[in-house]
Each structure stands twice: as structure tokens, then as C-alpha cells.
What we know:
This protein is α/β, with parallel strands linked by helices. It has a single domain (about 1-145), classed as 4-Layer Sandwich (Metallo-beta-lactamase, Chain A), CATH 3.60.15. It has helices at about 45-50, 65-70, 75-80, 100-110, and strands spanning about 1-10, 20-25, 35-40, 60, 95, 115, 125, 130-135, 140, 145. Strands 1-2-3-4-5-8-7-6 form an eight-stranded mixed sheet.
Amino acid sequence: MIQLTILGSSGTYPAAGRACSGYLLEAGSGDQATRVWVDAGPGTLSNLLRVAELPTLDAIWISHLHVDHVGDLLAANYALRYGDFQPPPAPVPVFGPTGWVSHVKPFLSTGATWADEADDGWTLVTPGHLTAQFEHTVVVTAGKPLVLTA
């Protein structure tokens, strides 16, 4: 089974009572389900938390780098970093387009030194929290997300 939950569909900025672009894509069911948050526009995190918990996500996939598609990543990072999770959650991988690391590193690190670019040049590591991998096309299956491009 594949299910798509619309978390927001307002363009450019969140309109009153409407979040920007965001979707929860689920494949499979129960504990075997794969959950991917597709685009994290402003307001979508709140709507996501109505139907799923952040640590249950298998990945976050960002289609492009406009703020109406990435605006809630900072809030999600803070929720995973400072939320009341026991035990602390595993990192949630983030997939995005070319240039993602240079775009998001200052945004997620907010000047802190805990976000580091890995030696491969396309992975952003924030130990214990969001982890970003870039320049991949992924497909959601009944198992885990599959990387289609190298």
C-alpha cells in the first residue's frame, strides 16, 4: 500500500490556515512501513506531527531549495535535537538536489560547529540529529528508501 498525506499546498508563503509544500509518503504498513517527508515547507512540520513522529521517518526528501520547500527543516532539526525523545532518536537522512550542502549547512548549524561536511563532499553530518545526503534520486519501497543514482 502507498499513501500520500498532503501536509501543505500553499505556494510561496504559508497562507492563513495553510502550510507551504509538504507531503508524507508512506509505503507498506505498520512497523514495516517506509515514511518519507517530501518537502518541508513552512507549517508542514506541525501538520506532520499530527500523523507521525519525527523519529519514525526513514528520510526527508527535498525537491528544490526554495524556502517554501525547506523552511521547516530548522524546526525539525531543533525538535530532533532538543525534543523529549527517550532514547535519543537516530539521525534522519535528508536527500536533496545538487548544491544542498552549501545551501543548508548555515541554515541548520545556525553558527554552531556541530554540523560538518563529510569527506565525500555531499553529506552533511549533525551527530545524533538530521543527516543530509545529496544528489541522489530515491524511490520509496515497502522496505527502506532505495538510492537510484550514485
